[in-house]
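Standup notes
- DV: blocked on the single-chain target, sequence here:
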Amino acid sequence: MAAQTEAAESREAKVMRRLAGALDDYGLSTIGKSVAMAYLRKLPEDDMARVRAWWLRKLNGSDLVPPSNTPARQRGCPELFEGLRAQPVWWRGCEETRSEFPPELAWVADVERNAPAMREELLRLRDQGEEHFQPYRAPSSEQKGGRGATDRGDWNVFYLELHNMDFEAHRERCPVTCGVLERIPQTYGHAFFSSTACNTHITDHNGPTAKKLRCHLPLLCPAEGCRIRVGDEIVRMARDKAIIFDDSFNHEAWNDHASEARIALIFDVWHPDLSAREVKFLSFLQTAAMKRAKRVCEAAGVVGDTFYSVIDQGRRVRPEDARVWGAAAAAAPAGDAKDR
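- DV (later): unblocked, structure below
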């Protein structure tokens, strides 16, 4: 019996060493590793089931191979989780047939209710601003020649939150919007105003992870010509009507209007099927990984194709106002654009 107990303890110790070894990718300090190991010891518990399956796949080297039951349109996402509901669109905005938000999306009512105030705040950015929109860029698009993610038109963004990057000056100018975001449970730490110029197509792509959902709230939107495809579903966009979708599914978006831009508030929330403890652990790992990437970027003198260097380089570029706001909105006083 003593020998069996010793063998079992030896197997557990071996497993824990493998678990600890997988943490090396996150650049954790000694204290950070201790915190992470405390979470990993909880993996057998029920409220860690999704993370447990994901972490075991990492240990087995199969985390980049989609699970067999992954929908075809989601297979392009590099970070997938078993046990999470996988549905492309969770709320269809102006095309939604349900009259009430489901419990996990109850916060959307407050977001839509505050859309007029956030639109006024957005327009003040245009009328007052030293802080400005920047071209959307990501390392993967930089590798394709720095053209961003469009095959025609322009996509520009005004970040409010982006992991641990400093956009405090932007947030100070948007207190209403930031107040709305602060009331949303389990926000993901990624929020921005997104402008797609007239005649723009954002090409099809998959988001980087399945552990979150994305909200699009159009604040300035032409009456016709704006839509998004997620998986095999196409949803029309309309002003002040939020669309909630899983951006790990392949998706693309259009603004086919001849002169007007579409500007939306976009932000992410943690997937509602994740437990509170899973969110804490995944958030801890994500913060550690981003801090490590930032250290690498700073050590390299903000050069190269890293997340931080690409975003930082984009901050130095100011797009033409007409490409951000549209020809009509760029020329009109704020009050004239509020009903658009």
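- Follow-up: The two ends are 77 Å apart (CA to CA).
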